[in-house]
Amino acid sequence: MSEESLSTVLQQDHSFEPSDEFAAKANGKAEMYAAAEADHEGFWAEQARKYVTWSKDFETTLDWSGAPFAKWFVGGELNVAYNCVDRHVEAGNGDRVAIHFEGEQGDTRTITYADLQKDVAKAANALTSLGVGKGDRVAIYMPMIPETVVTMLACARLGAPHSVIFGGFSAEALHTRINDAEAKLVVTTDGQWRRGKAAPLKAAVDEAMNHGDHPVENVLVVRRTGTDVEWADGRDIWWHDLVDDQPDTHEAQPMDSEHPLFILYTSGTTGKPKGIFHTTGGYLTQCAYTNSVVHDVHPESDVYWCTADVGWVTGHSYIVYGPLANGATQVLYEGTPDTPHQGRWWEIVEKYKVSILYTAPTAIRTFMKWGDDIPAKSDLSSLRLLGSVGEPINPEAWLWYRKHIGGDRCPIVDTWWQTETGAIMISPLPGVTDLEPGSAQKAIPGISAEILDDEGKPFTEPEKVGYLVLTKPWPSMLRGIWGDPERYKETYWSRFGPKYYFAGDGAKYDAKGNIWLLGRVDDVMNVSGHRLSTAEIESALVSHPKVAEAAVVGAADETTGQAVCAFVILRKEAVEEADEPGEGKDLVQELRNHVAHEIGPIAKPRSIMIVAELPKTRSGKIMRRLLRDVAENREVGDVTTLADSSVMSLIKEGMSSGA
Ligand code: 6R9
């Protein structure tokens, strides 16, 4: 499609019908919608028995008597690691490749399900020898290497909930998360490969431990880069010293369906990150089901690749639990898309004959920027399905993805879900749904979504903007916020009353009844598909001795979706200093680094503007809307509710003088 015809497609509101060939083999079926509608619990009970092997069958599908605290598949028992590994070996598929690992440096490992079974057994035995048992929490701070997947599965095997902390988070962030979950063990690596260089990782764990007040007994360290590390005797243990010689068999114990599987921290509207926690039976059921009907994984023939980091929920559900429960073959890539060159991903697709690719709009937009000629150099004909997740995908990016990656033949599934929902909720079913570029379209079978107006009334009229809510409990829903049941009720079940799960996303219908997700309605930003809270970054900024006050907004950014823009008022002493020629720039750099230190490099503001005042209402609420206008270079909107309406002109002046 030429650029001209691309814009014609956009104007025409073109949708794409599934091909007969795809439809004939698709796992998703049109009848599923009606079946789930007719008998919601019956439908999920069927999926639970189809996708999961239960050591003890469940008695009750859903217990919602303690709403909004759900119990799914009550009375059932299962072991997640057994489901993800052992049962495939028992079924005679031990020789099937589970993981094609591709290191950034070009090192590779092929791990079959039989290998994975041994690796997980050894790790489970090693964790046991460190005193980790059922219910103990384990923090995992690791890059994208097979040991990370193995550690998560070993935890699941023992019933020890893991808390994976993204490798891009700082020592400070690590410290809060380790303490909140009271993790007894931390598993990490000496370093990680990033753009051809070894970046340290354990150093951040050491720094977190130096706070003194922590619950950690041991730190287990995988050697990945050979980077020098500090060593605390008695606390630190090398993985190869402990794990390698362990027996390679381990008896998996069944866990209750509602036993906690993991905690994963995500940004909320207040500064304190929320420990979202998920349990066993319902989570695994929905991960496996969606990986089957939405990603259309056929384990015997597909090569699947989800490019997310395992430190985010997408990595949990669609690298570890969903695909492995289904016995799929997948690619695990350690590095960045432009190392050693911008065609790295497409070489990986060609090399492993990847047939299903699941990635994020921010990556797609980056590839668009790099140019069509780069993917064109590789043979991408193995691809048959593409997926998108993390933020709204604009129609231009959708159409580019379809043409330049999908060869105009692959269906694209735009999948909406959240850390809290655990698994995909809104998405087309490939082979069933006519695809609408830019829209996630429809709740999948078994899920019920609606859009409410300000008063909490559901509506269906097109183009009107409202709030997305979920109206029925679903198996992989969060079971709460770790240690804070009240915050769970308040955040998700109070905005529109206890009947509606409030997702925090704006949404609308189009004339065809498709749902379009419009981004967050709360103070949460989405930068390259990562959730960051304005409050969290503001509190990092004011923790700097020179900062008196800070306001952070997410401004539209062509590549990353949104970018962090900060407005900062300095303390009196610092103002004078910053006025010295050249000092202002250094201070901005210092503040950016401070945010990286407090939270992590992903939270580093793209711009920081030093201002004398912030726009506030008479009740003292910062009007971020106006700051967003400034950050996005727009005419500043209505300022009549400001306590001091001259503030905005001062800020605008500051912008144009380049302060
Ligand atoms: C899986 C994941 C959740 C937030 C969510 C929404 C945004 C995710 C989206 C999407 C539009 C999609 N989001 N997928 N927006 N279309 N297909 O990303 O989880 O990190 O918790 O973020 O991301 O705003 O509320 P999480």
From TrEMBL:
Catalytic activity: acetate + ATP + CoA = acetyl-CoA + AMP + diphosphate
One Pfam family of this chain: AMP-binding_C
Positions contributing to ATP binding: G390, E391, P392, D414, T415, W416, W417, Q418, T419, D505, R520, R531
PTM: Acetylated. Deacetylation by the SIR2-homolog deacetylase activates the enzyme.
Gene Ontology CC: one annotated term: cytosol
Keyword Chaperone tagged: no
EC main group: ligase
Residues that, per the record, bind CoA: R194, R195, G196, K197, T314, S528
Span of domain AMP-binding enzyme C-terminal: 536-621
Names of required cofactors: Mg(2+)
Domain Acetyl-coenzyme A synthetase N-terminal: 30-84
Source superkingdom: Bacteria
Ranges where the AMP-dependent synthetase/ligase domain occurs: 91-482
Residues reported to bind Mg(2+): V542, H544, V547
Single GO molecular function: AMP binding
InterPro entries in UniProt: Ac_CoA_lig, ACAS_N, AMP-bd_C, AMP-bd_C_sf, AMP-binding_CS, AMP-dep_synth/lig_dom, ANL_N_sf
Gene Ontology terms describing biological process: acetyl-CoA biosynthetic process from acetate
The entry's keywords: Acetylation, ATP-binding, Ligase, Magnesium, Metal-binding, Nucleotide-binding
UniProt-listed Enzyme Commission number(s): 6.2.1.1
N6-acetyllysine modification, residue list: K621
Membership in a protein family: Belongs to the ATP-dependent AMP-binding enzyme family.
Protein role: Catalyzes the conversion of acetate into acetyl-CoA (AcCoA), an essential intermediate at the junction of anabolic and catabolic pathways. AcsA undergoes a two-step reaction. In the first half reaction, AcsA combines acetate with ATP to form acetyl-adenylate (AcAMP) intermediate. In the second half reaction, it can then transfer the acetyl group from AcAMP to the sulfhydryl group of CoA, forming the product AcCoA.
Protein name, as recorded: Acetyl-coenzyme A synthetase
Organism: Pedococcus cremeus
